[in-house]
Design goal:
With 440 residues, the protein is α/β, with parallel strands linked by helices. Helix content is 41%, strand content 12%. It has 18 helices and twelve strands. It is elongated and about 80 Å long.
Length: 440
């Protein structure tokens, strides 16, 4: 709508000032766009492809409240308080206007969805909403509201893994990152979530299961994390309804110790919500419908019996990580031609596992690279501590190993104990012979 001038005889300075105010008003004006619709709250007007949409005042208020909180469940109580302030109304009145909104928007026609009913709770606007006509400088990196942990800094050697996982998520919708403890599954999952924020319009949600008990009610934890109030002991169906029409990336981190519950929930949500993408991390496969497994490899390390210089050693991601962690916080360690081969040997002996490399690198200033190779044989590295802020299972290698050991069944623990007679590599026939010993 063109600006309305107060007088045709306004002096030039006043005209310019008014024009400036009009431009500022237009810049600050809230415009909400979804699908073919354009919603202008200040004009209380909704257009479809440029043509006005006929809505009652109550229906407009309900739509505006839902669109402003797109992706979140708005309770029936909140909607009624917004639409009928200070008045006592029946819930049926709200349902009547919701039905009118669905009809006016064409909700459900040709598979297009705008409104989702969350049983027992309220309604959710599930379509993507943008504000393209707000004439404000566009930020270089848009700010999205999400609950992802901070983007990992100084991540080394995982760029290709993040790209591969992101591409697989687009194609398959359900990816489980699998690998041993300390390999970096959580770091890669969080990084992939940040990489996909724009693609999912900020609808990326992280649920960490690592600190829950083995008998934790996983569906209730996920529901609570999403802001849904559990109406029963098992809110799986409510979760499926809530996510059914929503385009979201859901990250389920550290599933191994609640594997049965996590697998059942992931499969149910995958089946019920065609726009939901799931990224799980686990030390073992979930083994459910739709799951694509991505086995996260160790960081590449120098081969055995190779003479390294400082320059060519840094070509290996494991060595680069070691050096970065060893020098973090003003450490006195420096990679030189004299110690490059020892550092490469350390990284190879640590199997290229990032957590093991980080914990070891933190002590190289006290021992030296060559002495640390010998200390590895004495298993002292199992007790070396890492960051105080790390998860308990990541503070020492012993804690990481114990976490994995506690996940084993009694039979698996017996077999693992028998295999401890081997040092280094072993053949499959030797493993079978030892594992099948008496009492197996």
């Amino acid at each position: 709508m063109a600006p309305r001038w107060q007088s045709n005889n306004t002096q030039s300075s006043n005209t310019m000032a008014a024009a400036g105010r009009s431009a500022q008003d237009e810049a600050a004006r809230e415009i909400l766009v979804f699908g073919p619709f354009r919603l202008d709250p200040s004009q209380r007007r909704v257009e479809r492809d440029g043509s006005p949409l006929q809505l009652s005042g109550r229906a407009f208020d309900i739509l505006l409240a839902l669109v402003r909180q797109a992706g979140n469940v708005v309770s029936k109580t909140e909607l009624m308080a917004t639409t009928w302030p200070g008045a006592a109304v029946e819930e049926n009145s709200l349902r009547v206007h919701i039905a009118a909104l669905r009809k006016a928007l064409g909700d459900g026609n040709d598979g297009v969805r705008y409104l989702s009913t969350v049983s027992g709770q309220g309604y959710c606007f599930v379509a993507a909403v943008s504000r393209p006509e707000q004439r404000q400088p566009a930020p270089t990196n848009p700010t999205y509201v999400h609950n992802l942990p901070a983007h990992p800094r100084q991540m080394v050697g995982r760029e290709q893994a993040i790209q591969d996982i992101s591409e697989r998520l687009r194609a398959q919708r359900f990816v489980t990152v699998v690998g041993p403890g300390g390999i970096g599954k959580t770091t890669v999952a969080i990084s992939a979530g940040h990489a996909l924020l724009a693609e999912f319009a900020g609808h990326v949600h992280f649920v960490g299961l690592g600190e829950t008990g083995s008998a934790a009610p996983v569906p209730a934890i996920v529901a609570s994390s999403l802001g849904l109030r559990a109406r029963s002991n098992d809110p799986t169906n409510s979760l499926a309804t809530f996510l059914r029409d929503m385009r979201m990336l859901l990250i389920l981190d550290c599933c191994e110790h609640v594997i049965e519950a996590a697998a059942a929930l992931a499969e149910r949500l995958y089946q019920a919500a065609p726009e939901l993408h799931i990224l799980a991390t686990s030390r073992e496969l979930l083994r459910v419908e739709g799951e694509f497994t991505y086995r996260l490899p160790p960081l590449p390390s120098p081969p055995e019996k190779i003479v390294l210089t400082a320059a060519n050693a840094l070509a290996y991601p494991s060595v680069k990580l070691f050096v970065e962690r060893a020098t973090a916080g003003g450490g006195e360690f420096a990679l030189t031609d004299a110690n490059a081969s020892d550092v490469g040997n350390l990284c190879r002996r640590l199997d290229g596992i990032p957590l093991a490399i980080e914990l070891t690198a933190g002590h190289v200033g006290a021992y030296g690279a060559r002495a640390m190779v010998q200390l590895l044989d004495q298993h002292l590295n199992l007790l070396w501590e890492g960051r105080r802020t790390a998860l308990p299972r990541h503070r020492t290698l012993r804690a990481t190993i114990e976490w994995s050991y506690n996940l084993l069944s009694d039979a698996e623990r017996v077999i693992l104990g028998r295999l401890s007679v081997f040092v280094g590599s072993m053949t499959l026939d030797a493993v079978r012979s030892i594992a099948a010993g008496s009492g197996g």
